[in-house]
Amino acid sequence: MHNAPLHVAGLVMGMANTVRHRRQGYVRPRPFSASDIERTLDHAFEVVDRWEAHGDIEWTDKRVLECGPGSDLTTGALTIARGARSYGAVDFVDNRDQAPDSLYIELGKRLGRRVDADALTFTRATFPNLDEVAGTYDLIVSNATLEHIEEMPSLFHSFARLGSPSARMVHHVDAQTHMRWLKEVDPLNVLRYSDFIYNRLLRFPGAPNRLRASDYEQAAVQAGWRVVATVPAILVRNEYVHRARLARRFREYDRLELLAFTLVADRLDT
């Protein structure tokens, strides 16, 4: 498809998406139902495995904070099963009532041990300051969450306040268009629109922030973190990047082909 039809398709679908989210709120954090237990558990294992691999994580005795866990805390249960001392989650909305009661029972069957869901704590907090969150954490993680949050330097400052002197952040970021069909054919569609159009017609609480890998890296450094790695997860062909007609301010960005990645950063005093 050519640029003009993709531009129009993204605008129409995005406006419909904005109306829906403004009416309902950000109530579906994943592209599948929370009642699908098998898929939910598969997803949790995939997320924790990726954190572990990309972030070179050793969970033993670590205090873990997850930002934006979604509809359940199964990722937290897995970190504890792998040796973490404690797990806490924080989000601006609480969707845990979507998870079926049997979810942790089924996870226990997979793990071969009972899951103590009461050990998995959750705090509903105001972003980006997270004033409601207490404690000190050695690992601060997230999956497909940061792209929905504004004011990234302030959030990373909050993580620095909550992190131990040897804390590590491991954040998997899905920086591509999130609308289902367009995600496959035009993953950078979200970057096609000027700030004026995007802010007036396509923005809602939880909408993609349109930040790129370098934005996250700079925000981390500004907040007192040392970027260890930005690990590619999904790449698009450069031919598509060069052909796509993006809004002016995005055209000079480097690594536009990097659609999804994991940011790994340590406290500067590590």
Notable traits:
9 helices; seven-stranded mixed sheet; Rossmann fold; 270 residues; alpha/beta; single chain
Any overview of this molecule?
The protein has a 7-stranded mixed beta sheet with strand order 3-2-1-4-5-7-6, with helices on both faces. It has a single domain (30-181, 208-267), classed as Rossmann fold. It has 270 residues and is of the alpha/beta class. Helix 5 (152-162) links the parallel strand 4 (137-143) and strand 5. The chain starts with a helix and ends with a strand. It has helices at residues 3-24, 37-54, 74-81, 103-111, 152-162, 180-185, 195-202, 213-222, 238-243, and strands at residues 63-67, 86-91, 120-124, 137-143, 163-174, 225-235, 258-267.
What is the total number of structural domains? 1
Give the biggest beta sheet: 7 strands, mixed
Mean pLDDT: 93
**Tertiary shape:** globular
Say what oligomer this is. Answer: single chain
Fraction of residues in β-strands? 15-25%
Main structural class: alpha/beta
Order of helices and strands: HHEHEHEEHEHHHEHE
Q: How many β-strand runs? A: 7
CATH-derived architecture: 3-Layer(aba) Sandwich
**CATH domain class:** Alpha Beta
Task: State the fourth-level CATH superfamily.
Answer: Vaccinia Virus protein VP39
Q: Into which percent range does the helicity of residues fall?
A: 25-40%
Order of strands in the sheet with the most strands?
3-2-1-4-5-7-6
Please name the CATH topology. Answer: Rossmann fold
Q: Count helical runs.
A: 9
Cα Rg: 19 Å
Head-to-tail CA distance between termini: 49 Å
User: Low-confidence parts, pLDDT < 50 over ≥5 residues?
Assistant: none
